[in-house]
Amino acid sequence: MNDTTVSNSILERLADELGDLTPEARKAATYVLENPHDVGVSTVREIAQAAKVKPNTFVRMARQVGFEGYEDFRAPFREAIRNGAASFPDRARWLQDIRKSGDLGGLFADMAEGAIRNLEDTFAAIDADAMQAAAEAVWNSRHVYTLGVGVNNANARNFTYLASTGMTQFHAIPRPGSTAIDDLAWANQSDVLIAMTCRPYRTEVIEAVEVAREQGMTIIGISDSPASPIIRAADHAFVVAADTPQFFPSSVSTVALLETLLSFVIAVASDEIVTRVEKFHRRRHQLGIYAEDPE
Fold first, then answer.
1. What is the CATH number of the domain that holds 15?
2. How far, in Å, CA of 203 to CA of 209, rounded?
3. CA torsion through residues 70, 76, 82, 88, sign
4. Quick check: pTM over 0.90?
C-alpha cells in the first residue's frame, strides 16, 4: 500500500465520522478533507488558523480517528508529499512564470504527470464492487439523469451520448432553456441521478441532489472531496482527483470514471445491449454517417 493510499484511507475515516463530530471538530475535519495537502506542510497552529479553530481541536480530531496526536496524524500526508502528491499553491501565477521563462517543456511534463497521478489516485481509491453496485442501479433504473454544469455539462453530455448507442433512458441535464430541478420534476424512486461538481461547488447541482433525495431517486455523486455535499448525500459516491498545474480543476479523472461506469453498465446489462449497439452502428453505416474505407 503506497502512502497516497494510506492518506486516502485516513480521509475516508474522517468522512465516515464527520456527522459524529462536534461542530468545531467538524470544521477541522472538513478543512482537512478539502485541503489534504495542507496537512503535510502545516504545523497544528498553522492549520488551525487556516481552518479558524483552536489548535486543540485538531489534536482532538486526530485522536478521535485513532492517532496519538496531530503530528502522528499528519505523518502519512507528509510522506505523500515526498512521493510527489503536492499541488501548486498559486497555479495561475506559476503558469505565467513558466511562459515568461520560455520553459513550456516543463509545463508539458507537469501536465502529463498530473493527469497520470490523478488517474492513479482516483482508481486506487475506488472499489470495483462499489462500481458494480452503481452500474446495476443504472441498468435497473427507469431513467438516468446525468447532471453537470460548467465544464461538467460537457462531461455529462459525453456520457449520455456514449450511453445512447445502446440505451434510450439516458438524459443529460439541465436541458437547454431549462433548470435541473425542473428536469427532475417527474423523476421518482425508479430513476437514477448522476451528479457531478468540484470545488467551488455549484449551488444548482447541490439543490438538484437535495430535490432528488426528497423524490426518492438513487444518487450517484462524483466530486473531488469526501466532504463535498453531493458525496455526503449520495447512495453511490466516487471521489475523483482533480489536481493540475492549471488554475482550473482537471476533468481527466471524471471522464475516465464515467467511461468506467458505462463499461460496468454494459458488463452487467442483459445480452440485448450487444444487439442494440450493433443495430445503432449498422444504421449509421447505412445512412452514410461514417466514411467508408476505399475499395
1. 1.10.10.10
2. 10
3. negative
4. no
